[in-house]
Design brief:
The complex is a heterotrimer of chains A (424), B (344) and C (293). In chain A, strands 2-1-3-4-5 form a five-stranded parallel beta sheet, with helices on both faces. In chain A, strands 7-6-8-9 form a four-stranded parallel beta sheet, with helices on both faces. Chain A folds into two domains: 220 residues, Rossmann fold; 130 residues, 3-Layer(aba) Sandwich (Rossmann fold). Chain A has 424 residues and is an alpha/beta fold. Chain B is 77% helix and 1% strand. Chain B has 15 helices and two strands. The longest helix of chain B is centred in the N-terminal third of the chain and has 28 residues. Chain C is built from eleven helices and two strands, in the order H-H-H-H-E-E-H-H-H-H-H-H-H. Chain C has a two-stranded antiparallel ribbon. In chain C, helix 2 runs parallel beside helix 4. The chains are: A alpha/beta (424), B mainly alpha (344), C mainly alpha (293). Chains B and C meet through helix 6, helix 10, helix 12 and helix 14 of B and helix 4, helix 9 and helix 11 of C.
């Protein structure tokens, strides 16, 4: 007697329809436009007193360690709202949704934020797959997709998606920093590479190979791993057999820890260990044991809350105080929070610089950043974009792990100057 | 395997009130079609009332429903378990994407090809897999689902590697006057209706009876002359085909495929959706699709980890108290209401 | 040559990890005749409990004992509360329940302990034993030793104790076992308790190498399944041999078969499972079962 079940399904479906149908098909406010100098530009999600942003992060599932980023962002906006009267008098409302690192879910959440929540802009989607899945949509709808949290180079080099822009140094730029460092320090280095078999690994490895072209440095061994692999120990063993004198560790946090630990265990092979920025968080190194990661090299672009160098830095003091005030449950020493704070204040600057308080205004502003200083970024690292340059941050500084923290060394390396623009 | 299964025995006992009353049964069948027609009418009306976001969500519900319909054929009707249906879903999605991208085939043609590829693959994998008992089949299908992701990355020239493939969505023909989301929704609806009709006629045929016999008692079925491996393989292939068709519609609706979209979680989510929706029932896949689509979003407001906790608990709870899932539960509720009404 | 031998050593190291979880799978199969998809997640959860103890300052060995005891009780509780209601139901139902348990335990661990990785103290000394250019990590040797010990204990339990006898009777035919006076319910609960304990040992062994996070055992599970299938689901010796073979095969295929490479080696367990099931379904060490309806 399936009829009743079917009937019940029908009733449920009808109820659902009725519940969601309120308001009908017409989108309220979708056609909101500005008047005056910015006439005809979209003003959805922004008023004289408020601005609504939406972010999509993996709060659940295997990549959910990154779910800490929005906590730092929220703390920043709460602070700006409460003490600085918002961004130019507009209080920021930041809606965070979870996609579990699944592209179809990211599409759904992007549509929810744009169509239902009526956000002004998507402020960060995390991960290359989720961002690739949504950027056609945001660009068709002409919704800014600002400072996406992935370092794929495609956000900056693509011409068909002007509404989407990255923020952090792209993986190719990062690879260039390491190449530059090796060229100076170890001009005839033999490099072994461990990399994640996805766009992130490909981009960084490809960028590195390109950057060492014509130098005495060569890649003598490369091993990839899958995120579903239980361990990278076998790959590390294979790399050890290459007798390379440099190990480039292109991994995400868990595998970064495994690789660092495997390197420490293997006393017969002691290469210079370079770990990429994604896995350079203190939360990755601590489980390995600080005594095992001395001398490891990485690079960064924002201030590490654990570095005593910034103990009296005004921005860092402010960050720590406001995190305690507005996000008391979050540990301010976790760099993901500082990342969130830095990207939120970058948005603050970009929004303030917009000529029109409209979506078009934000789009133009994020493509026209000139030497914008963000206090949470390292001194000397500024945001620069232009009509044909879609990479806000392309400078990084090298750091070495000493004692219980990273120590910066050398000058900030501007990869644009050293290598020219990142091209296809 | 001895005796009748608990799932089916409960389902059967739940169905008994409807039987034995011949005139009532005819009325039931008539009612069934009326309700289905009403549901379809509502489904056709919905996209003109809802905002595009909800239309999109309903399109995804239909996509999941088609995939669950296939899984239901295997799990609910043939009593075999698959932890790898996300793989066939992915094969359908990738077939459609590759045809659209590399061959530039018109999109309606991608559906039969995607379904056929999934069917053949299901047949090829089903041949060895179906010599196994249910338990081992679960292992094999799980291994397939895990293996698929690196395999998709390996053939980069074809599949776009880990960056995946981005595609243009099917544009609505001008004469319809529909918006893109509405058009995609109607495409999904058409495929879903066709899939349901196909599954319906399939189950009423010899195949359906053979499958039920296998599910209820393999040995007895064999004695009665049901060719076990033949029908089990066929059920596997059919269910793979439905999953492949669903994957194809998924590609139309989302316009993007990547290996990360089809990890093992998808296969497990599909199984969870089917179990909660209702094994072996017709409305189960629809309810399961609604569940897969809407519950994580609602649960997320409780806690970030809540969707997993709720999924897990619900699966276990459903297996205890309502092996027929939401569909069975819904049936029970309506019956008791009917009883009350009849008394008055 | 040294390179090749070193690969085999690496394979054995990986295989020991798979074998440790496969032992738990075999144990529960012997007791209850089902495959527990949640076994890896239960092991992960137990490891978190051990981590919680050590983080609270409890010495490692005491934490280990406490965790094993808790796992035993927890396993029995799970059988009583979660599995009991579907006892006697078809395999399909039980498998689905264990899949539900899998999802639930994984999410619950993420809820309680977050997804940030935790370091777990290594009971074995760091460094490696070296001979003739070969490196054999002390961790690997330690894991192999513990796995061998657990295997031996299980063998004794299965073959030379009353419990083992009763348990075999229950797995073979619950109704007849009940008739001859075996307390079937308690035997099943005991099976779950023991399997959870062995699983906890596995989790604690591998946590220092894999690093503790909720998905730690997810990648191991499929290899453990392949190991148990290869060795035979009812043989502890088979589980260990199967685990080692799977580990070595996977490592060698990744290193020497160009087409496989390190990205496709996860296909090795699939090939092994399929191959074994088609050629010798009872596994290398298992006994063929005659089915009765």
């Amino acid at each position: 007697m399936r009829v009743s079940a079917l009937g019940c399904t029908a009733v449920t479906a009808l109820l659902l329809l009725a519940a969601t149908a309120c308001g009908g098909r017409e989108e309220n406010g979708a056609a909101a436009t500005a008047t005056g100098a910015c006439q005809g530009q979209q003003t959805t999600g922004i008023t004289a007193t408020g601005i609504k942003l939406g972010g999509i992060y993996p709060l659940s599932g295997p990549a959910s360690a990154y779910g800490d980023i929005p906590k730092g962002i929220k703390a920043y906006f709460d602070y700006v709202n409460a003490e600085k009267n918002g961004i130019g008098g507009r209080k920021v409302e930041f809606v965070v949704r979870d996609d579990g690192y699944q592209p179809p879910k990211a599409v759904e959440e992007a549509r929810r934020l744009v169509e239902q929540e009526q956000v002004f802009a998507l402020f960060q989607t995390l991960g290359t797959p989720s961002t690739t899945a949504t950027w056609d949509y945001t660009n068709q709808r002409k919704v800014p997709q600002v400072f996406v949290a992935t370092g794929a180079s495609v956000w900056g080099s693509d011409k068909a998606h002007p509404w989407t822009i990255g923020w952090q140094p792209n993986y190719i730029s990062e690879a260039r920093v390491y190449a530059q460092y090796l060229k100076e320090e170890r001009p005839d280095a033999k490099v072994a590479v461990l990399y994640q078999n996805d766009d992130f690994g490909d981009d960084l490895l490809g960028g590195f190979k390109k950057a060492i072209e014509g130098s005495g440095i060569q890649v003598v061994a490369e091993q990839s791993y899958e995120v579903s692999d239980p361990s990278v120990d076998p790959q590390m063993r294979n790399l050890a057999q290459s007798d390379a004198d440099v190990l480039l560790n292109v991994t995400t946090p868990k595998f970064g820890s495994q690789a660092l630990a495997a390197d420490a265990r293997n006393t017969g092979w002691n290469p210079l260990h370079i770990v990429n920025n994604v896995a350079a968080s203190i939360t990755v190194l601590q489980p390995v044991g600080f005594e095992n990661v001395q001398g490891v090299v990485s690079s960064t672009y924002y201030k590490d809350p654990n570095d005593p160098k910034w103990a009296s830095d005004p921005e860092m003091t402010l960050y720590k105080a406001k995190m305690g005030q507005y996000a008391p449950d979050a540990d301010p020493s976790i760099p993901y929070h500082a990342f969130g704070w830095a990207v939120a204040s970058s948005f603050h600057k970009a929004m303030e610089a917009a000529k029109c308080p409209t979506r078009e205004g934000l789009r133009d502003s994020m493509r026209n950043l000139q030497n914008v200083q963000v206090d949470m970024l390292l001194p000397g690292v500024t945001m620069n974009t232009g009509a044909d340059d879609g990479f806000p941050i392309e400078s990084m500084q090298l750091m070495e792990f000493k004692g219980e923290r990273w120590e910066l060394f050398g000058d900030v390396i501007d990869t644009r100057q050293e290598f020219g623009p990142v091209g296809e | 395997m001895s005796g009748s299964t608990e799932v089916t025995s409960k389902a059967a006992s739940a169905e008994t009130p409807g039987r034995g009353r011949a005139p009532g049964r005819a009325a039931t069948v008539r009612w069934r079609w009326i309700v289905a027609a009403l549901l379809l009418a509502a489904a056709c009306y919905a996209p003109f009332q809802l905002v595009p976001f909800h239309v999109f969500q309903l399109s995804m519900v239909l996509v999941y429903a088609v995939a669950l319909l296939g899984l239901n054929l295997l799990v609910g009707h043939a009593g075999q378990i698959s932890l790898g249906h996300g793989a066939f879903f992915a094969v359908g999605a990738y077939t459609a994407a590759i045809l659209l991208q590399r061959v530039e085939l018109p999109y309606p043609l991608t559906l039969p090809v995607a379904a056929a590829v999934a069917f053949v693959l299901g047949l090829a994998l089903g041949l060895p897999a179906m010599r196994l008992r249910g338990l081992y089949l679960a292992l094999v299908t799980l291994a397939i689902a895990i293996f698929l992701v690196p395999l998709l990355k390996r053939f980069e020239p074809l599949t776009g590697g880990s960056m995946g493939l981005t595609l243009a969505k099917p544009a609505p023909p001008a004469w319809t006057g529909l918006a893109e989301d509405q058009w995609l929704y109607f495409l999904a609806l058409a495929v879903a209706v066709a899939a349901f009709l196909l599954a319906h006629s399939l189950l009423r045929s010899r195949v359906g009876r053979a499958l039920h016999a296998i599910r209820d008692n393999e040995a007895a079925a064999e004695v009665m002359g049901v060719r076990l491996s033949f029908y089990k393989t066929l059920a596997f292939a059919w269910s793979a085909m439905f999953a492949g068709a669903a994957g194809c519609v998924y590609t139309w609706v989302i316009g993007f495929v990547s290996p990360d979209s089809f990890v093992v979680t998808l296969s497990i989510t599909l199984l969870a959706g089917l179990v909660v929706g209702g094994l072996g029932s017709f409305s189960g896949p629809i309810l399961g699709g609604l569940f897969v689509m809407f519950v994580p979003g609602i649960a997320q407001d409780v806690n970030d980890a809540a969707p997993g906790v709720i999924f897990g608990l619900l699966i276990i709870a459903v297996m205890y108290v309502a092996p027929t899932g939401l569909a069975g539960l819904a049936g029970r509720v309506t019956r008791s209401i009917q009883k009350i009404l009849r008394k008055e | 040559m040294v390179g090749f031998l070193q690969q085999i050593v690496e394979g054995l190291g990986a295989g020991a990890i798979y074998a440790s979880l496969a032992l738990a799978l075999v144990l529960i199969y012997r007791f209850t005749g089902i495959v527990n998809f949640a076994q890896g997640e239960m092991a992960m959860f137990a490891t978190y409990i051990a981590w919680q103890f050590t983080a609270a300052g409890v010495p490692f060995w005491l934490a280990l004992v406490l965790t094993l005891a808790l796992s035993f009780v927890g396993g029995m509780l799970i059988e009583r509360v979660v599995i009991r209601p579907v006892e006697g139901a078809p395999e399909l139902t039980v498998v689905i329940v264990t899949v539900g348990l899998f999802i639930f335990v994984n999410a619950a661990a993420g809820w309680i302990w977050t997804f940030l990785i935790k370091d777990f103290p290594n009971p074995f000394p760091a460094g490696a034993f070296e001979a003739g250019g070969l490196h054999v990590g002390y961790s690997t040797l330690g894991i192999l030793a513990v796995v061998g010990l657990v295997m031996g204990l299980l063998y004794l339990l299965f073959q030379h104790t009353r419990i083992g006898l009763g348990m075999r009777a229950v797995a073979a035919n619950p109704e007849s076992a009940r008739l001859v006076g075996i307390r079937v319910g308690w035997t099943l609960a005991l099976g779950w308790g023991l399997a959870a304990t062995v699983g906890a040992v596995s989790g604690i062994l591998v946590a220092p190498l894999l690093f503790l996070e909720p998905n730690m055992m997810g990648g191991v599970l499929i290899y453990a399944f392949a190991a148990a299938t290869l060795g035979g689901f009812d043989s502890p010796v088979g589980a260990v041999a199967g685990g080692l073979i799977v580990g070595v095969a996977e490592t060698l295929a990744g290193a020497y078969v160009g087409f496989v490479g390190s990205d496709l080696k996860v296909g090795v367990p699939l090939v092994i499972i399929l191959g074994v099931l088609l050629l010798r379904p009872q596994g290398l060490f298992g006994r063929a079962v005659v089915e009765r309806a």
